[in-house]
Amino acid sequence: MKFESLEVLYLSQCRKLKKIPKFHGNMKHLKELHLNKSGIKELPSSIVYLSSLEVLDLSDCSNFEKFPEIHENMKFLWQLDLCFSGIKALPNSIGYLESLEILDLSYCSKFEKFPEIRGNMKCLKGLYLDKTAIKELPNSIGSLTSLEILSLRKCSKFEKFSDVFTNMGLLCELDLYKSGIKELPNSIGSLTSLEILSLRKCSKFEKFSDVFTNMGLLCELDLYKSGIKELPGSIGCLESLEHLDLSYCSNFEKYPEIQGNMKILKELSLKHTAIKELPGSIGRLESLEILDLSYCSNFEKFPEIQGNMKFLKALSLKHTAIKELPNSFGCLQDLEILDLGGCSNLERFPEIQKNMGNLRDLSLQETAIKGLPCSIDNNFLGFVLFFHHVPLDDDECETTEGDPHCELTISHGDQSKRLVKIPFYSDCKTYVSYSSDPHLCCYRGSPSDPAIWVTCFSQTEIPREYRSSWWNNFKALVHTRIGYGSFTCGDNACFQVKSCGIHLLYAQDEMHCP
To answer: Which residues lie closer than 8 Å to 370 by C-beta, 6 or more apart?
Structure first.
């Protein structure tokens, strides 16, 4: 092949291409060679003469099984993509790729063994071995001092690391999702830059050693459906941790005391664990927003909230064995969602404090609750709006198309939400109204004074998110729609309102309907 100026060569999806000819040193400027989804079975050994090559893509080449020996003159190759290929092994000379940054062997189901790293691969940043047949990594993997991402997802045969992490101080993501890992070496504590550690669905992984002291940048720890039984006390040293997922860890029974600095933890999921209680120090999680203990059938008692959990927004205790809630529950001033559904042992709900005005979703179905405290306005039905205007003179009324209505808004501070427009029907003999919603219309309510207009507004008409006491200001504006004319009567250009008001309705009020 003689293309002396060629820099990029695409042979992607050439299914019938089984072989490429030898390179004789005439393609010195080639930087990218894309053979993905081709029928290629092997590369000629002369590939090493592509001294300017930077990207080599052999992904989805299912017939490609063997990579040729590498020589030192491929100094610029920084990306080698072999994912979904039929590769079985890599030569030891792979270590001569001193500029290599990304090596992807994901879903190479025949790949069983990673070679010893000989040479200098100190630029490698991403090593992807997802769903390979690999069983172990060589000790020389520890020489990858620039490695930032190591992914062994779904490597079901991979069970153990040797003590390789001491010099891998730049590693920020270690993904062992659904691998066969049983334990981690103590040197995991040397990963001072680690931000994400996933042991999700690692059913054989049961225990951490006390390794978290120097892992201050870890922000996400995923142990979902792992075999973990306990956490070490040093978990409290994870000062950057934001998400901790222990849900479906059926062997996990006890959460440790929070002795360190976990001040930015936002989400803690303990759903479907065997946990029986939480430590009193849980109140130190002052940034916690979501706490999920649903389906923890052994969990009976929530601790007194002694710290400052003012940002907790959602708490789920659904289908736990909880019997009561502490009175300090009133300290949860930002709580919006509280789920106690299916707590069959719960008989009493504590008094709601005034500073829990954000609570908008409270689930108590299938509990043993006998009554609600008076601090919950459970008997509020809605309200009645009325206005009283100067009587109209039927003989002087003029017909227009304007329909007067009441525009109702609800607000808190500078936040407001328009709830509804309520049109009025007049008994004036010449007035015409075109309202399409008879359920929200105002009618004259008294023959003795036809100038009184009344409407009832049900609590259910208020959207759920605006039913808390946080939204506690109503405004009713009576006018005609702009552009639709105005209601005139004789010399009067509009209604003259004498008075208006609102009356709250409760279940205990006596209702007299004609």
So the answer is: 347, 348
- Tokens of residue 372, six digits: 């609600």
Q: Is the dihedral of CA 228, 233, 236, 237 positive or negative?
A: negative
Q: Is the dihedral of CA 103, 106, 108, 112 positive or negative?
A: positive
**β-pairing verdict for 404-412 and 473-480:** antiparallel
Dihedral angle at the C-alpha atoms of 284, 285, 289, 290, nearest 10 degrees? -110
Alpha-carbon distance of 14 to 84, in angstroms, equals 16
Q: Which residues have a Cβ under 8 Å from the Cβ of 342 and sit 6 or more positions away?
A: 318, 319, 365, 366, 367
Location of structure tokens 């709830």:
419
Label residue 460 exposed, middle or buried (CB < 10 Å: 0-12, 13-18, 19+). exposed
Least confident interval from 189-193, 196-200, 216-220, 366-370 = 366-370
CA 70/CA 56 separation, integer angstroms = 13
Q: DSSP secondary-structure letter at 424?
A: B
For residue 287, which of 302, 315, 267 has the smallest C-alpha distance?
267
Question: pLDDT tens for residues 314-329?
Answer: 999 999 999 988 878 8
- Token pair, residue 301, equals 């008692």
Distance (Å, whole) CA 249 – CA 206: 10
Largest CA distance in the chain: 108
Dihedral sign of CA atoms 115, 116, 120, 125 in order: positive
